[in-house]
Amino acid sequence: MKYADEYRDAAKALALSEKIKEVCIPGKKYKIMEICGGHTHAIYKYGITKYLPEQIELVHGPGCPVCVIPLGRVDDAISISQEDVIFTCFGDMMRVPGNKRSLGDAKAQGADVRIVYSPLDALHIAKTESDREVVFFGIGFETTAPATAIALKQAKELKLSNFSIFCNHVTIIPPLVSILEKEDTEIDAFIGPGHVAAVVGCQIFEEVANNYSKPVVVSGFEPLDILQSVYMIIKQFHDGICKVENQYSRVVPYYGNKVAIETINETMEVRPYFEWRGLGTIKNSGLKIRSEYGDFDAENKFYIPGIKISEPRACQCGQVLQGKIKPNECKVFGKACTPEKPIGTCMVSSEGACAAYYNYGRFAFAAK
Amino acid sequence: MIKSTQDNSNKGDNKVITMAVGAGGKTTKTIISSLFLPRFSNDYLAEMGDGAVIDLQSNRIAFSTDSFVVSPLFFPGGSIGDLAVNGTVNDLAACGARPVAISLALILEEGLLLSTLEKIADSIMHASEQANVKIVTGDTKVVEKGKADGCYINTSGIGIINENVTGLGPKNILPEDTVIITGSIGDHGTAIMVERGDLGITADITSDTVALADPINAVLDKCGSAVHAMRDPTRGGLATVLNEMAESSHVGIEIDEERIPIKREVRAVSELLGIDPLYIASEGRMAIFADPNYQDEILAILQTFPQSKDACAIGKVVSEHPGFVLENTVFGGQRIIDLLVGDPLPRIC
Amino acid sequence: MYDWAMCLGIPGQIADISDEHYAIADVGGAKRKINTDLLLGQPLESGSWVLIHVGFALAIIDEEEAKQTLSLLSEMQDVYRQELEALSLSKAHQADQQGSSS
Question: What is the ipTM of this complex?
């Protein structure tokens, strides 16, 4: 497959591996955080750490939008699904547990919950089943917000009266800053989320490089992309510089996609506060639908319980999401919390650190 | 559910299955004699007994059953009728048997178009001819509109175990055994996904449903004792079969990502949707675990048959990590192929 | 893993531009209708490669940049190969020397 296979060449990976070793400062330890579920998944799937020297440690951050949805919001979604609606969502959301059950459970118990691939599919259902109320569960970082935004615009143009969106989009910089502001943070640099940057640009990360002195390299998702990004980070330390670089230049324009940014701004605005699983409440980190599009806001149309639910005691998702512990260091990893019976969201989504580790890493660890 | 037709006259092209068809009376007999008997004509059915009385030459018999609830009923490459025959034939072949006879039980939804039933019956006829197996007994029931989603089918089959088979079974796999697959994986499930149309994807993918009794028995004729276990990867795909076998025989299995045959379009659809082809159903493939010294001979035999021309070895059985299936990835890593959790793709077969 | 990875961005080639809002993208043989509104004002035509995410074209893939990235990686690979060869040559040389001195 073009633009994929060429970036999966193991021979080139070995070459990159050597270059990385060459620019490592002897004795220095590097803790690099990636903040996108796609990177977490790729790192484990392709065994990237095998190509890195011991002094480089990759940690996972809050980059999986499924993983950071608080229990209370999942319950809100389930509550909406109990009304006489067709509740649509991405596949990943079906198994995320709320306080008592998941959307998948609600479906088994009779709710009309349907998986869609795109918010436009949900819109299509609203058009064809015009006598039914249709709700779309909008989740994702800035990568996916433009899609929801276009769906809102189309709904308005078509003057639909039976379509609304339960908006749970989040933005990437506030949680990063929240992690960096913590005193005990040990992160040295970031592998930047390539597809978020394709929308909002690389320049949003300049704050991280300038104010916190942490290099950021915006990376693609193939294994060679990730390795090259690690190389570029280590080289920055070697050269004594600290800036934002764009490894994923074939896809990401440095200043992002202007049309996409405008579309988001036209239809959504920043929430003053939003709760993140494991990270607590973060200022200005969530998006909600603007009043001009209020007719399509599920939070206006339906009763939202809005109950804040605390994590199950045993759950250490928060620590995993901040990069403080590895999945296998969580007390319940692989025991009480498995993909079949997940306690926390990190285990549910295939892009969650714990699920990825469970799949790709746990055996190697056990073997050691 | 079947959408109701405009014309309620139950004549001509709009003729539908009514509750009367399942009642056992005159209407039932008419359907059997006009629709089924002409297509499945054989001495057993002609007897019209309560069951078929068959004289089998052996007392090493394989017996298998399977039900088919696929939606939609028709898809590129086949229909529920093809699955119904090939599915049971392949299960018998996996037991090391040559299929002899099949029973056919249909549960029809009131309102199903007669023409649809005729098409299904045609496909059952062709599939059983290709598989060289007879439909010897059957049953038809009708349930009210809203149930059975058109048509559900159960087939059960008997076969005679190939004389050369010794020690075949899921517990008999040994370390060093070679792991062979008879063709590309995931074609059927992907064809169904695309045909359902919910995802708006178009792709040139056809179901791989086909009977494997001939190539499998050809292998058993020559190297029966070298074959330790076989299973066809249907629901849950190859990953599920490998896990089941690793568990049953308490061995480890290691497969090589680059050797697993996956059609380009199947790979494309699965990349687009983020689904792993290892978990997507096939309906005309067999996984074979055999003595590695016979690997080349087995492959050579399989490759002479059109339905297994792409047969290849994909890995081996090991004594390490019993119960676990590992994949050596193209990038030099290794990942665990776990059992499926949940079922995002229901009614695949 | 048998899960629907929502965050996927996949490269696909535009097979057909249907109208000002939609195009048909070909992803390794599978085709899907995608919305092109987010690429308004960009030079999109049949044959263009785009990044596809949840039914939308998010960005045009720059062939030149892709070539540059790959050639950089290939250069590294060549250098690495040369180094490996040099290493094995020098090892062979060392072995010869030791052999001849004993």
Answer: 0.89
